[in-house]
Amino acid sequence: MNVRTRDPWSTAGWVALGLAWVLAVGAGFGLLWQYKLQPGEARSAPAAWPASSRLPRSHDRATLVLFAHPKCPCTRASLAELARLMSRFDDRLSADVVFLRPADVGADWDSTDLWRQAAAIPGVTTVRDDGGAETGRFGATTSGLAVLYDARGRLLFTGGLTSARGHEGDSFGLRRIGSLLRTGEADRHDAPVYGCALHEGAAVRAADGNGGGTQ
């Protein structure tokens, strides 16, 4: 009489393997969301529009300045939210998108789809920040930082437009800017900013390596 040997992988082994796979995938997603929800560095912007700035500023409505790294994949979502903001408040807001351009890069380094995306937004002026002069004047350190000034050049808000890295949708920044433009008041005048470090070489190389929005 032949007795069949039970394959240990037919039950418990496959269950254990499946459980390990689920745990590994869950841990991976957890790390990904931890990264997405990690805000970038945010410094205090000048309380008044810097007198030395050459950026265009409106004198009859608020001006928003968004600082961007041309190769930061997270910034695509910030630009999408800026477009929505401009469509809602086109009569109360003008905007500049300032793209950092370090001194030691090639001629076409900032010719990316992010620049084209920003330039296509009605009411937005795109500016190349050679050497980071304007970035330094406003204390910007993270791509996606938005600063909002009123018609008199007084700081109203500083922070991000998204709720996570590369995530479109409602955010504290959008709510507060909207409230400031509608009523002149908000529960806070800041919000976390999510994006790549503007001046960090490692961030630039990482963006280049994963496609970073270039075409």
Give your account of this protein's structure.
By secondary structure, the chain is α/β, with parallel strands linked by helices. It folds into 2 domains: 10-39; 62-209, Glutaredoxin (3-Layer(aba) Sandwich). Helices cover 33% and strands 15% of the residues. The chain has helices spanning 12-36, 75-88, 113-119, 133-137, 172-183, 201-209, and strands at residues 62-68, 93-101, 124-130, 145-149, 155-159. Strands 3-2-1-4-5 form a 5-stranded mixed beta sheet. A hairpin with a 5-residue loop joins strand 4 (145-149) and strand 5. The radius of gyration is 22 Å and the shape is globular. 36% of the residues are buried.
